[in-house]
Amino acid sequence: MDLAGKPLKVEVGKVAAQANGAVLISYGDTTVLSTATASKEPREGVDFFPLSVEFEEKYYAIGKIPGGFNKREGKASENAVLTDRVIDRPMRPLFPKDLRNDVTLDNLVLSVDPECRPELVAMIGTAMATCISDIPFDGPCAMTQVGMKDGRFIINPSQKDWDTGDLQLTVASTREKVIMIEAGANLISDQTMIDAIYTADDVNKKIIDLIDQMVSEVGKEKFEYQSFALPEHMLEDIEKIVTPDEMEEAVFVNDKQTREANVAAVTDKLTEAFADNEEYLTHLPDAVYQYQKKTVRKMILKDHKRPDGRAIDQIRPLSAEVDLIPRVHGSSMFTRGQTQICDIVTLAPLSEVQRVEGLDPNITEKRYIHQYNFPSYSVGETKPSRGPGRREIGHGALAERALKPVIPSVEEFPYAIRAVSETFESNGSTSMASTCASCMSLMAAGVPIKDMVAGISCGLVTGETDDDYIVLTDIQGIEDFFGDMDFKVTGTHDGISAIQMDIKIHGLTRPIVEEAIRRAHEARNFIMDTCMSKAISKPRDHVAALAPKISFVQIPTDKIGDVVGQRGKTINEIISRTGAQVDIDEDGRVSVSSLDENANAEAIRMVKTIVTDFEKGQILKGTVVSIKPFGAFVEFAPGKEGMVHISKIANERIAHVEDVLTLGDKVTVICLGKDKTGRMSFSIKDVPKEALKD
């Protein structure tokens, strides 16, 4: 088919015939092998659907050999992890909830055309491979990306337009509803975002037509699987032992720990009651979950009652503070109910930007980095830390995307910036708390961000019909677990900077999407106005005392070698003498950084001195570095020397240079031009008296 002006070609049966479903999909010259495979038997001992999604970036796809000693691709890049998550989110709800067979959706990137992003091709290929496979799946679904330049939407933009435009939107849909939204935006309006979402939704319907045709021609019959649904009358039997009123009393409390203790007591009571029923005991954890879910959903949807007693649009208690951590460059803490994030900002020279390797040739480094950590103690559990998983990487990327539009340019603020969000306590939407905390710590660190940014998550509980639903503002953990949606929106008072939408049902109607975006806008304004701005209302006009101070000087590119010196001797001497860090770009931009502004000034002076072609009459300060019978050599910058002839040292005649000068003496000299050998010639005795006063 023709898709947004470019050819989309799908081949079935040519390769990977032993997979349950496989397509070789090409969009332009971007080619991806997408496969869907399932185990023949369910995995033992799990109470969840074991789905794995992989996006494999291969450097041969862009004609490169991987760096490093092994010359082999290593662990998945951050981009690959984020792509896995974007594919997983719309696919997972469409599999049967009681399926326990392992399913792997794998995407191997074989070739990359800069005009057609491989991530998009993998998303479409995954849906196609699963739909034509024999794996039970309630598809089809399709995905489209939308960019924007000069106010105009671009369907499935090129990599360059994606990287440089004002919108990066990915939308997945079934034929009837939107099922996933992921967006980064340059502070666009709510209505523009809604229009973009449904522009993508219209394109998805055309892709679904092609998938329907594929299924009708080459689709396999779905296999029968062992269901792990609850025994038919189990919930009815449970309600005889623990009444709905008792379950409501157990779960409808404000404190998370109290609720968990209440549910544990209910579970113990049921375990004792079913001690002789092995089948019921096997399914008991899932049954208690289902009973809680049924109770919470009924009370919210029918009675408009939330577990902690809040109104449907009410935000939990908020608090914020800055400067709570000593010696760091910027810190803040943001608390919303039982969700608490401490964010710490570090500023560094531009030489410490993060180098990025991947299939996108337009992105080779990141100057602003946001990272998120989720230790087990934040939810009252214990387990060893094994480094960030996919969830942590995803949450960090979302908060990074949320703040990216307000980060100042390198010309405005020449620093590398790292923000780290430490989760102290978690009970719902820590990624949105991270956005709020990061915004405050950036301002506390003196980063001149362009506007304040906040974020909030909205939830959803649906009934039997499309118009029977409740949208919840600021969902806590229990409402996320038992609800149908986690709709996260970040932005300023005026515009959206990021969206991430996860759902557990088969899609959202347009009224739900519009209401969630409106509610999120109202909520983030409330958070900024009543909480964040009370802690800190604008960026500080200076960086912290312990943050590096950075200065710049531009030099001619043909003078870079003079500053670097042979084997780096000159630049290392500048660093050694001043204590400042000195870095030079290939365009002649010299960056100098240290905690001492005087050290910066001295390093800049040395650089300027090295690259200056001195003329007769210029005054310099230097150090005597060598004494000869005929005169003294004065170094006025690392690697830059001139000679003072013995006759130019003092007004009176001297027999020996040592009578007046000693190695290491600091002297002021005046340039006499170049001597017959082309060497700089100086005089001490001819320096004007006014210069000596300086």
TrEMBL record:
UniProt binding sites for Mg(2+): 480, 486
UniProt cofactor(s): Mg(2+)
Pfam families xref list: KH_1 (PF00013), PNPase (PF03726), RNase_PH (PF01138), RNase_PH_C (PF03725), S1 (PF00575)
Entries under NCBIfam families matching the protein: polynuc_phos, PRK11824.1
Function, as annotated: Involved in mRNA degradation. Catalyzes the phosphorolysis of single-stranded polyribonucleotides processively in the 3'- to 5'-direction.
Family: Belongs to the polyribonucleotide nucleotidyltransferase family.
This protein's name: Polyribonucleotide nucleotidyltransferase
Native organism: Candidatus Weimeria bifida
